[in-house]
Design brief:
Blueprint (H helix, E strand, L loop, with lengths): L10 H17 L2 H8 L23 H43 L4 H10 L6 E4 L8 E2 L1 H12 L14 H17 L6 H14 L1 H12 L4 H8 L7 E6 L4 E6 L1 H13 L13 E4 L6 E2 L4 E7 L2 H12 L2 E4 L9 E5 L7
Antiparallel strand pairs: 1-9, 2-5, 3-7, 4-6, 4-8, 5-7
Length: 340
């Protein structure tokens, strides 16, 4: 690692720099840099000076600010030097990764290797993105489903299925890898047993509630909203017109529908409607009959709901036979030299 020490600037120069910085900071980005440099103790120019830094003589407030800015500049230059020294190694890897992405042939092993090469402990889980994960899509609907996923799995009736099985499985798989990755568990098997026990204990939901309270939110109001069937003004149902099996559920098309309902942004300034979205009653591999519920559309108006139902209908494909099973997690990519 390279190091860079800020030069010892003469007091008269530091005072001049400080006055310039004071005027410029008020015009451009002062609040952001104040947070980075911990300038909260510095009052406007002309106020009393802050306590001196150890080893320095008392100086005017503007001079102290200048010193802090110079240190921040030195740290920035140091980081840039380190980054430039790594470029000869990183550029070929970046070029290869971007070429693969543009050609549609992504080498995820190379991307994991790049992360580890940059000093970040990296591994990847490749998942099936053709179908929406879980049963809900849309801001509040996804929050509601995520909280449901944290609840302990109740005793199931023989033959019944967990409606959140794919979402819960991915949560368990990611948590398992994190425990192994951080050295909290020696084997994948031990990590999996631990996370399953933790999820079944109800502790994750308790921690969620603690986080809600810690952020100043009213937990009672949040829990009250959770039990509501819907919060959007209009809910419309999409039902099947035939018998068979859901063979496909187009995640991209559904995402575009949610965006157009107001659940996503077309531009940076677009307003978000947190209550709109989709609930899926049927997913690939599941059987349907005429008039079976396929999905529910949560919308801000009847017109929006009707348009969305027509579009979502095109996302569902019904076949006479069940489709071939597709694994949720197709591959787990580990750093070079590590074994599952």
């Amino acid at each position: 690692m390279h190091s860079f020490e800020a030069p010892d600037v003469p007091p008269e120069v530091r005072i001049h720099i400080g006055s310039i910085l004071d005027s410029q900071a008020k015009q451009t980005g002062y609040e952001q840099w104040k947070r980075l440099g911990d300038f909260d103790e510095f009052a406007p120019q002309g106020s009393s000076a802050p306590p001196p830094v150890k080893g320095e003589s008392p100086v005017p407030a503007t001079t102290a600010v200048a010193n802090r800015w110079l240190r921040l500049l030195a740290a920035t230059i140091d980081g840039m030097i380190n980054f430039l020294c790594m470029l000869p190694t990183l550029i070929p890897m970046w070029r290869a990764a971007f070429e693969q992405i543009s050609s549609g042939q992504v080498n995820f092993q190379a991307m994991v290797a790049l992360g580890n090469k940059c000093g970040v402990n990296t591994r990847a889980l490749l998942t099936n993105m053709d179908t929406p994960l879980g049963r809900a899509a849309g801001n509040w609907l996804e929050v509601k489903e995520a909280v449901a996923c944290l609840e302990p799995i109740a005793a199931k009736t023989p033959g019944s299925q967990d409606p959140l099985s794919d979402l819960r499985e991915l949560v368990l798989a990611c948590a398992t890898q994190l425990l192994v990755q951080t050295g909290k568990a020696e084997t994948v098997e031990a990590a999996r047993a631990h996370v399953e026990e933790c999820l079944a204990s109800g502790k994750p939901r308790q921690k969620w509630d603690e986080m809600i309270v810690a952020q100043g939110a009213a937990l009672s109001e949040f829990n009250g909203k959770l039990v509501l069937n819907h919060t959007a003004p209009v809910v419309s149902e999409l039902r099947s017109s035939e018998r068979g099996y859901v063979s496909r559920c187009d995640a991209r098309l559904m995402g575009e529908v949610i965006r157009d309902l107001g659940g996503g942004r077309m531009t940076r300034d677009s307003a978000i409607n947190y209550d709109v979205g989709l609930e899926l009653a049927a997913k690939p591999g599941e059987s349907v009959a005429p008039d079976s519920l396929l999905a529910r559309v949560h919308a801000a108006s009847r017109t929006q709901a009707d348009e969305a139902v027509a579009r979502v209908k095109a996302a569902f494909h019904i076949a006479p036979e069940p489709p071939a099973h597709q694994s949720l997690i197709s591959e787990i990519i580990l750093p070079e030299g590590e074994n599952e």
